[in-house]
Design goal:
The protein is mostly helical. About 65% of the residues lie in helices and about 0% in strands. The relative contact order is 0.14.
């Protein structure tokens, strides 16, 4: 029964992650009701400055041993699926899993997004065998490279 719950939540998470990635990549969605006048775009551009680049946070995200083990326990049974599904679908599954893990371990999604390398640090320390197998199955240099959420 636990497997079924992950599948349902995983599917919903994947849908949300894919939607967010598409919106980000496509520059958002306009419904036609927004004010697109030059004055409006200037006001919104100055009101919400954007930062470019993905600079690492000043202090790395700290994760408890229990949360680290939880991520390992979530990843371990998915390794064979990722090998069968291939790297493209496997990476979507990894994103959904990390998103769910961050949500269930204190809602640290934004922090994980700012410090994607935390996934590698945590899994190398807590379950290096799982980390190595995941990197191999997903054909990635490291797990952080596969995170797009």
């Amino acid at each position: 029964m636990r497997r079924r719950a992950w599948t349902t939540r995983g599917a919903l998470t994947v849908a949300g992650v894919c939607g967010a990635v598409l919106l980000t990549a496509c520059g958002g969605v306009q419904t036609g009701s927004e004010d697109t006048s030059p004055a409006a775009s200037t006001a919104s551009a100055t009101a919400t400055p954007k930062t470019t680049g993905s600079a690492a946070p000043a202090t790395p995200l700290e994760v408890s041993d229990k949360a680290a083990q939880n991520l390992c326990d979530m990843m371990r049974p998915e390794l064979s699926n990722w090998r069968v599904q291939g790297p493209t679908l496997g990476r979507i599954g990894l994103n959904a899993m990390v998103h769910e893990w961050a949500l269930t371990n204190g809602g640290i999604n934004a922090q994980v997004l700012a410090d994607k390398a935390v996934v590698d640090r945590v899994t190398v320390q807590a379950c290096s065998d799982v980390h190595d197998e995941a990197v191999r199955a997903l054909e990635l240099p490291d797990l952080a490279s596969g995170l797009a959420f």
